[in-house]
Amino acid sequence: MRFIELRSDTATEPTQAMRDAMYKAKVGDDVYGDDPTMRELEEYAPKLVGKEAALFVPSGTFGNQLSLFTHCKRGSEVILGNDCHIVVHEVGAASVIAGVQLRTLRTNGGEMDPDEVKKTIRSEEDIHYPETNLICMENAYSDGKVLSLKNMGEIYHAAKEYNIPVHLDGARVFNAASYLGVDVREITKYCDSVMFCLSKGLCAPVGSMLAGSRGFIKKARKCRKLMGGGLRQAGFLAAAGLVALKDMVGRLGEDHENALLLGEELAKIPGIKVNMEDIQINMVFFDMSETGYDSNKLVDEFYKNGIKINPEEGGKMRFVTNYWVKRQDISYIVDTLKKILFENIT
Question: If residue 317 lies in a helix (H) or strand (E), which one and from where to where?
């Protein structure tokens, strides 16, 4: 049975081109630097985002935490949004791995106030204060919002005033670039390091990249080994990553268009509230509380009809489009929801 996967774009399966590339990949021990396919990926990837070097990591969370671990001294402070992925969905890893304190600021659609960032920086030496070692941004945001280049630029320049590096959680940075209609380097020029995923909308089975200066990546490579991220014949994964970056980045706009269509059709169902302005990439968030239908039950009913979804989180449902969700699937998804809700009412 074919399932329509709406839980996340992390659940995408590799394309046939990726499977073929993985099968044919030339590999070697990557810890020794002997894997030619991994070397190719780590040479190709940083050029896309305007950085000097890059490093393959097992996951986005691993990449973000590796960046904090590499940039920061233990006991220092990191400034970032209170609702960003590093804070909300990375299991408190910053306190365990990097040993840092997270100084969270309220955001407006993921955007921190540059003036508030400036005020939060620990600029004076004081026996009571931790030192600000890093500022983090996220684009696109975990809720599907895309930060403006203006906001990113203001925060980056504020950080540079105090000689503080900036890390970008760019798990879906190519989605953000597609939405803004710019080359991804117009986004990544406002950060010193960036993590971006190969295994989300780009369909690679495993992995993310961490990119930055050569010095930063050299240090991060040793930190990656410490964290247990030194892989051996990793070229099988790198082969899929190369296909992801070369073939899949340019088609992300299709997922965005399908998300908009899905949002438009969901909004027509009585009791469903969709904020269409929030559909900026491939994520559709909606409120179905007025229908009175339990979201956990909806998960079960959708599964019976060949659709995988997650229950609500924070009062919101989230459907995520991806390469394997085709335009013709949108009608089936909406009709299935209508059928379930209508049968519940009758």
Answer: strand 317-320
Residues in Cβ contact with 204 at an 8 Å cutoff, skipping those fewer than 6 apart: 14, 18, 198, 237, 240, 241, 243, 244
Tens of pLDDT along 239-257? 999 999 999 999 999 999 9
Which spans in 209-282 are helix H?
A: 214-226, 235-243, 252-267
Each residue of 83-128: pLDDT tens digit? 999 999 999 999 999 999 999 999 999 999 999 999 999 977 889 9
Number of Cβ within 10 Å of residue 268's Cβ equals 10
Calculate mean pLDDT across residues 34-50: 98
Closest CA to 191 of 220, 218, 170: 170
3-state class (DSSP) for residue 299:
helix
Q: Which of 231, 292, 218 is nearest to 70 (CA)?
A: 218
SS3 at position 152: helix
Model confidence at 346: pLDDT above 50: no
SS3 content of the chain, % helix, strand, coil (to 5): 45, 15, 35
pTM of the model as a whole = 0.96
For residue 148, the Cα-to-chain-centroid distance in whole angstroms is 16
Report how far residue 148's alpha carbon sits from residue 112's, in angstroms, rounded to the nearest whole number: 11
Q: Which CATH architecture has domain 4-9+251-345?
A: Alpha-Beta Complex (3.90)
Average pLDDT for residues 292-302, to the nearest whole number? 96
Q: Can you point out the beta strands (E) in 33-145? A: 53-57, 77-81, 101-105, 132-138
Q: Which CATH class is domain 14-248?
A: alpha beta
- Locus of tokens 């990591």: 57
Mean of pLDDT values over 324-338: 97
What are the residue ranges of CATH 3.90.1150.10 in the chain?
4-9+251-345
Looking at the chain, the domain(s) classified CATH 3.40.640.10 span: 14-248
Tally Cβ neighbours within 10 Å of residue 308: 14
> Are 150 and 188 spatial neighbours (Cβ–Cβ below 8 Å)?
no
Note whether 98 and 72 are within 8 A (CB): yes
